Amino acid sequence: MPIVRGKDIEVLFSASTIARRNLELAKAIAEREYEDLLVISILKGSFIFAGDLIRAMHDTGLSPEVEFIFISSYGTGTTSGEVRVLRDIDNEVKGRDVLLVDDILESGKTLKFTRDLMLSRGAKSVSIAVLLDKREKRQTELDADFVGFECPDYFVVGYGMDVAHAFRELPFVGIVKGDA
Ligand code: IMP
Ligand code: MG
Questions:
Q1: Which residue has the CA at smallest separation from atom 4 of ligand 1?
Q2: Distance in angstroms (rounded) separating the CA atoms of residues 128 and 29
């Protein structure tokens, strides 16, 4: 088990497992034949997944535009969290096929808010790609079009995801053992 910052980290999805899955996701995305694709990475958690996914998309022949939106949600999954845009995209979405990329789909509040925002701005379509799906935590009717892995209900870190701003740099997804 890797030890990082003095903590044992149990590997849930290894770097090579994620890389293989990203290529499969990219192929599934390419099969949709989107016309004017705008990938929007939801910060901060999705930055590594989005970076790897768009390069896998390149390998399948896709050339999307890429944008970033910084979304913050206050309150945990069990309280009614308020979702806000902290930093918006610069690009026009009207008439375009938008692919939202996020790290984890949990309650669905973050992605529902962001999807509705893009639809209200006139996006032609809004699809959703997430690395991990914690299905049993869902509080909205929302589902992702492209899911890397079903995720058990553990708090996970790495591959862009943090606990208290730590562990984003891990090349794999893991669980902090002990008191984290
Ligand atoms: P929701 O779907 O709006 O409830 O929130 C999903 C967001 O919560 C994700 O984009 C993550 O930023 C965060 N999140 C949920 N579960 C975890 C976890 O296990 N580790 C790190 N971040 C998480
Ligand atoms: Mg997030």
A1: 107
A2: 10
Structure tokens at 15: 């770097």
The full set of domain ranges for the chain reads 3-177
- Closest ligand 1 atom to residue 151 Cα is 19
Sequence-distant (6+) residues with CB within 8 A of 73 are 81, 82, 83, 84, 109, 110, 113
Does the beta carbon of 104 lie inside 6 Å of ligand 1?
Answer: yes
Ligand in closest contact with the CA of 107: 1
pTM: 0.95
Atom number in ligand 1 closest to CA 108 = 2
pLDDT in tens, the chain (180 residues): 899 999 999 999 999 999 999 999 999 999 999 999 999 999 999 999 999 999 999 999 999 999 999 999 876 554 557 899 999 999 899 999 999 999 999 999 999 999 999 999 999 999 999 999 999 999 999 999 999 999 999 999 999 999 999 999 999 999 999 754
In CATH terms, is domain 3-177 a member of 3.40.630.10?
no
